[in-house]
Each structure stands twice: as structure tokens, then as C-alpha cells.
Write a structure and sequence with these properties.
Oligomer: single chain
Radius of gyration: 19 Å
Strand order of the largest sheet: 1-2-3-13-6
Distance between the termini: 24 Å
Number of strands: 13
Shape: globular
Strand content: 5-15%
Largest sheet: 5 strands, antiparallel
Length: 335
């Protein structure tokens, strides 16, 4: 089942986050040393990485004056900085943002953990329009209060009434690798195990043969796309979903996690288009960055954590009335 949560005012088009319910609460950790995966509640995981089009809508809603640096100029430079082609025009007080149609469904990148938390707050608050502050970006799922530096961002924790959030390592790991019906973990987030040296495919084919991801494979001739895009549209590998139904948790861009990795960094997971070894897709491959880092290989997806009973009602309502996937809309365009 795929859920759709649409929130926002009628003054602008609402950002739609597709999500899938992640059930089987109380599952055990993966058996690998130092592994993750236990989550004791039901929650939702974003089906796709947050896109440049969705982030552009966020910027236009709250960044006419970009108080907390939600826009990185690298985003507007796909040639040198490998950005996602979000362009900014105007002066502070009347800044505006745009992204071309052929970039809009590719994941946003060059975002920090702080940027990601502010996007989650904006979603939690119903996608308001206004300056960056309480009720838009600084309160909601996370109390940021203007935090911009490493130490205060490392101290931020999830609010007890949070809804849209950055997934913890356990939430992210379970959605990527766990098959709840079978009660097993896979090595790769495409519902497969690593068969060395036969790494997953990375070619864009129609139809997708499965077990595919956007990463730089030394065995198949390099990058999936190359310049200028580098990143595939989210969900491009339509037959390579995780057991729960998420896409691109392996490759495309590394994804921020909420969890603290060490005293100065937070976790990222999943590998990216720029890593040249398939093991970055593997469940046992963690990485981490300072929460202030804005790296061209890193983006994010959101998770949804209302009370389990509320989540079930939302999933049933979405399943009956608002079923939609980006895959279907893309196929419709091809037809």
C-alpha cells in the first residue's frame, strides 16, 4: 500500500510526499555485528528521496529572505558543483527559486542536516508561507531556534509530537533491508543479497530488470547517467524497490539520518551516484557527516511518525482515495 499525505495552503501547490507504511513493530536487529533495524512502532517511510522540485517549493514558501541558508549556491551549478539546478533570482526580501522540469523529479542535494530538519518542520507545520522562524522552520518536529553551527545542531532531538521527521538509522535501515513478512534482512535495499563479484546493475533500462541502482560500477562501465544529471529521477528503477516498497535507498544520493554517529557527526546511509564500489549499497556500510556539511552527493528522505493507530487510518484513507505513485505518472508521460 502506498500512502499520500498532502498538506499546505491553497495559495500554492502543496508538496506531496508519497510514503509506505512500515509495520511489523518489535522486529529484531539484523544479525550482522553492530547492525540495526529494531523499531518498536509502526511508521511511514518516504517512498522516494525528496526532490529538487519539492525543495524548490519549500524555498519559495520560506526563503524570500534566506535567514538560515537553506539555499546553497552549489545547487544552481550542475556543471562544476554537480548541483540539482535550482536557480535563485532576486534580492533578499524578494528572492525566488525555480527548477527546470527535467530536473524537478531528481533528488535535491547539497543540503545540510539543518536544512533537512527545517524542511521536516515545514512539512510538520502544514507547509506555511512566511519568514524562517517559529511556526515555519524553527519549531515543529525539531526545536532549532536558529541553530546553524555544529554543536547546537548536534544537540537537537526529535519532539515528542513530531510527525514528519528525518529517519533514525533504525527506521531507515528497517525500511531499506527488512522483509517483515519473511522476517529476514537482505544485504541490499532492492530485496536482494550481495552476490560478489556480481554487483547490482546500474543501467537505465525499460523495463528495469530489477536489482538495479544509480551508483558508479567498476564492472558495468562506470556511471549510470553522467553529466549533466548524474542523478536519476526518483523511482527510475521501478522493479528495484525494497521489500516495503521504497526506492533508491541504495545509490542516487546518500541520505541524512537523524541518529548521532559520534560527538560531531550524524549518520548518512545508502551510497550515491559518485561512489565506485557496490559495497556502499550494502547494509553494513555506514557513513557520517557534520550536520553543517552541504555535500553534492547527499540528500534526504522523510519518515512519518504519528501514533500507529493514526498511521493505519491515514494509510487506509490514502489507499482508498489518493493512491498515486511517481512511477505511474512517469509511465503515463511516456505513453
Amino acid at each position: 500500500m502506498v500512502g499520500v499525505w498532502m498538506s499546505g495552503s491553497t495559495a500554492q501547490a502543496a508538496v506531496v510526499i508519497d510514503w509506505v507504511p512500515i509495520g511489523h513493530p518489535g522486529n529484531v536487529n539484523d544479525t550482522e555485528p553492530g547492525a540495526y533495524g529494531t523499531v518498536n512502532y509502526a511508521y511511514g517511510m518516504g517512498t522516494y528521496e525528496v526532490t529538487a522540485g519539492q525543495y524548490t517549493a519549500f524555498l519559495n514558501a520560506v526563503a524570500a529572505t534566506d535567514t538560515y541558508g537553506l539555499y546553497n549556491t552549489d545547487m544552481g551549478d550542475p556543471a562544476i558543483a554537480l548541483g540539482c539546478n535550482i536557480q535563485r533570482t532576486g534580492l533578499p526580501g524578494s528572492l525566488s527559486y525555480a527548477v527546470a522540469n527535467d530536473w524537478a523529479d531528481r533528488p535535491v542535494n547539497a543540503v545540510s542536516w539543518g536544512d533537512t530538519a527545517r524542511f521536516a518542520n515545514w512539512m510538520h507545520n502544514g507547509q506555511p508561507t512566511g519568514s524562517q522562524g517559529p511556526g515555519t522552520t524553527e519549531t515543529g518536529s525539531y526545536a532549532l531556534s536558529g541553530a546553524m553551527e555544529e554543536a547546537p545542531l548536534m544537540a537537537v532531538v526529535r519532539a515528542s509530537d513530531a510527525t514528519w521527521v528525518i529517519p533514525t538509522v533504525n527506521e531507515w535501515y528497517k525500511a531499506a533491508f527488512y522483509d517483515g513478512d519473511a522476517g529476514i534482512y537482505y544485504d541490499l535495499p532492492m530485496g536482494t543479497d550481495l552476490d560478489w563479484p556480481n554487483l547490482p546493475g546500474n543501467d537505465v533500462l525499460d523495463p528495469d530488470p530489477g536489482n538495479s541502482a544509480n551508483y558508479e560500477s567498476p564492472w558495468t562501465g562506470g556511471s549510470t547517467l553522467g553529466a549533466p544529471y548524474w542523478r536519476t529521477e526518483v523511482g527510475e528503477f521501478e522493479n528495484s524497490a525494497s521489500p516495503y516498497g521504497t526506492f533508491d535507498q541504495g545509490g542516487n544520493v546518500w541520505e541524512w539520518n537523524e541518529s548521532v554517529f559520534d560527538a560531531t557527526t550524524r549518520s548518512i546511509r545508502g551510497g550515491s551516484f559518485g561512489f565506485s564500489h557496490g559495497l556502499v549499497l550494502h547494509a553494513m556500510t555506514p557513513s557520517h557527516l557534520s550536520p553543517t556539511d552541504e555535500v553534492n552527493l547527499t540528500g534526504f528522505r522523510l519518515a512519518l511518525v504519528p501514533e500507529p493507530a493514526t498511521l493505519t487510518l491515514l494509510a487506509l484513507a490514502a489507499g482508498g482515495m489518493l493512491m498515486r505513485t511517481r512511477r505511474r505518472s512517469r509511465y503515463a508521460r511516456r505513453a
